[in-house]
Amino acid sequence: xxxxxxxxIAVDIEPPLTAVGSVQRVRGIARLRALxxxxxxxxxxxxxxxxxxxxxxxxxxxxxxxxxxLAAGIPLVLFDHGLPVPLVQDALATPLxxxxxxxxxxxxxxxxxxxxxxxxxSRADSRALMVLLLERALAFDRRRTAASIGLxxxxxxxxxxxxxxxxxxxxxxxxxxxxxxxDISVYSLEGI
Length: 192
Prior knowledge:
single chain, alpha/beta, 5-stranded parallel sheet
C-alpha cells in the first residue's frame, strides 16, 4: 500500500556473457578464432529468429497491459539498419532493431572504450566515438533514443574500466545532452 506502481520494464540486450567471456580469455590470433566460433554457427540464424519472435510476443503483451519498455543494447547493431537481413543482431544474439520497444538506451560506455584500448584511445577519443554512435542512433530513431554512457563501479564482466572522476562523467553527460538526449543512464549505483 505504498502507491508505487511499475510503469517501465527494462531489458538488457547484450551478447551472451558466456560467448563474450570465451573471447576475452584468449589473446592474439586465437581471439579472432574464438570470436568467429562465438558468432558463427549453424543454428545462429534460427535461434536469432526465434528470439525476435519471443521478444516481439513479450513486447506486445507488455504494451497491451500498459507497460512502457526500454531495452539497453550495443550500438554495433545499428550497422544492420538498411540491410536486407540483420547480420550483426543475428551474429551477436542481440535483437534490438526489429522489436518495437518504446526506448532503446544505447550502451556507448566511454569508460570501457578508453579502458580496454589503453593509451591508444583517450577519454576525449571515447567521448567523440560516443557522440558519433549516438548521432547514428538518433538518425535511426530520434524519438526512441536514450544513452547509457558508462560505469561508476564494477560491471558484469568484472574487468571493465570505470569513471575515475566526476569531471569525466560530467563531460560525457554534457556531450549527450548537447545532442538533445535527456534520457541518460550510468551504471552502477555505487562508485565515484
